[in-house]
Amino acid sequence: MEEEEEEGIVVREYHPEKDRAGADSVDRVCEVGTSGKITLYTDLLGDPIARIRHSPAYLMLVAETSGPAREIVGLIRGCVKTVTCGKKTHRSTNTISPVYTKVGYILGLRVSPSHRRKGIGLRLVRKMEEWFRDKGAEYAYMATEKDNEASLRLFTGRCGYSKFRSPSILVHPVFAHRLRISRHVSIVLLPTSDAELLYRRRFSTVEFFPRDIDAVLSNPFSLFTILAVTGTDGEPYRWPGVDAFLASPPESWAVASVWDTGAVFQLELRGVSRIRRGIAAASRAVDRSAPWLRIPAFPDLFRPFSAWFLYGVGGEGPDAAEAASAICRHVHNLARGRAAAVATEVAEYEPLRKGIPHWRKLSCDDDLWCAKRLAEEYSDGEVGDWTKSVPGKSIFVDPREV
Q1: Distance between CA 104 and CA 12 in Å, rounded?
Q2: Which overall architecture, per CATH, does domain 4-166+369-385 show?
Q3: Of 96, 252, 293, 300, which has the maximum CB count within 10 A?
Q4: H/E element holding 26?
Q5: Residue 107, exposed/middle/buried by CB under 10 A (0-12, 13-18, 19+)?
Q6: Phi first, then psi: what are they for 173, rounded to 5°?
Q7: Quick one: CA torsion of 391, 394, 400, 402, rounded to 10 degrees?
């Protein structure tokens, strides 16, 4: 991509050999989320493109001051993939299949505090959209918080994006003690190949389902896929294979996969008072020394920590939420000593949401996805303008973009 210079600022493609330190510096001075006086920071472990390098196509742009003393003062990341945007019914066979579209996702837009309100963010977004179009993307979307006025002014006010979906990020701390799992639920670890088939056959019509789900599941950061079946009363459920499972599924079940975000980035809470830190430390000490008390200890999130992310959360049946709860609890138990939190992101009206354990003070109900149509013509007339469609009950959150 060619360099573009305007008013002493050059926007160009990121070069790892010479830009790593400068880009990392911009990331470090920019917060990724706030709650009152508490700020959440991210650390990409010295690799500015860590969050996008596992996508099918990706690009990072930097904004740099011109002249002899060049300095990186802004950056943006983007990736392009093919996802489900709707579904269509085949009348001849009475079957439903997904409608796919190519989308560009913007993440990690950062501008140094000393260079904000100078139009740098706008230039970075427009340049990234040019690349999206070159890659054949029909839509672009991004995620922000509902109360992030600066981000909303830029994207919805100046760049033509519209508010699209309002998912929730649900976070549960990892304790020293194990969480109890209902004896009426059986847990099964699925082979990766079976997990792929199950997702494609049952969830491929869910919004944002990635067409390359096989690449997601086989990624080394994707740890495992778990199936939970209710009504087993302590008896182990024997996985019969995908075909037999779908031909005669249990009355209620749920499935989810786990991604290790700590292999890509770490987070840190700053701005917490010493008193609160002390109370949190005391709760952890009690939990470690007397795990049988099952103290809901507050984890040490005040220094860099990692999290496990649940993706592909879905299920069927009247007790599917109970099955989802069992999965979350089982993942929590496996995460002890390996992660400080277990998180997931679900649609506003996700049926399984009530079964997902989380702490309200750590979670976020204010996530907002904004979308924009890029293409003048659509690849499939079944959907029309996706940005104006009614949201479904579920979404598939790609862990590569967390």
Answers
A1: 18
A2: 3-Layer(aba) Sandwich (3.40)
A3: 252
A4: helix 16-29
A5: middle
A6: -70, 155
A7: 80
State residue 85 phi and psi, 5-degree precision.
-120, 0
List alpha helices for 135-289, DSSP H.
149-152, 192-203, 213-218, 242-247, 274-289
> Are 4-166+369-385 and 170-355 the same fold in CATH?
yes
- What whole-number distance in Å separates Cα of residue 397 and Cα of residue 390? 18
- Single-letter amino acid, residue 142: M
CATH number, span 170-355 = 3.40.630
φ/ψ (deg, to 5) at 337: 85, -5
Q: Which sequence spans correspond to the domains of the chain?
A: 4-166+369-385, 170-355
399 vs 223: CA distance, rounded Å:
12
The CA distance from 292 to 8, in Å, is 62
pTM of the model: 0.92
Q: What angle do CA 40, 45, 49 make, to 5 degrees?
A: 95
- DSSP notation for 337-372: TT-SEEEEEE-TT-TTGGGS---TTT-BS-EEEEEE
Question: For residue 330, what are its two tokens?
Answer: 């089982």
